[in-house]
């Protein structure tokens, strides 16, 4: 089961990342919330797959997406 998740989940996560980017380009208010949820899924995949080199990017995107979500939530 873990092998299936490690090999298949990146396809779904990539699709969510593309969708989130389109939402952000359309200035949709939920774009960054979708991105934050997706980063949680990416973190799970990173841990499961042992792809530790992606941790810095994951942390940076958590910070950027949270910042953007807060900025877009203010009037």
Q: Key terms for this structure?
A:
75 residues, mainly alpha, 3 helices, 83% helix
Write the layout of secondary structure elements.
Layout: H1 2-25, H2 31-49, H3 55-73
Helix pairs in contact: 1-2, 2-3
Folded structure, characterized:
This protein has three helices and no strands. It has 75 residues and is mainly alpha-helical. Helix 1 (2-25) runs antiparallel to helix 2 (31-49). Helix content is 83%, strand content 0%.
Helicity, in percent? Answer: over 70%
Structural class: mainly alpha
Could you report the average pLDDT, rounded to the nearest whole number?
Answer: 94
Shape field: elongated
Relative strand content:
under 5%
- In whole angstroms, the N-to-C terminal distance is 45 Å
Overall strand count: 0
Regions with little confidence, pLDDT below 50 for 5+ residues: none
| Biggest sheet architecture | none
Number of helices: 3
Listing every helix as H and every strand as E from the N terminus to the C terminus, the arrangement reads HHH
Radius of gyration: 13 Å
Summarize it.
With 75 residues, the chain is an all-alpha fold.
């Amino acid at each position: 089961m873990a092998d299936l998740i490690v090999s298949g989940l990146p396809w779904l996560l990539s699709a969510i990342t593309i969708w989130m980017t389109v939402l952000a380009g359309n200035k949709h208010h939920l774009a960054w919330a979708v991105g934050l949820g997706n980063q949680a899924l990416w973190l799970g995949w990173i841990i499961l797959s042992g792809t530790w080199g992606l941790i810095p990017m994951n942390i940076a995107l958590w910070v950027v997406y949270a910042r953007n979500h807060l900025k877009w939530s203010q009037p």
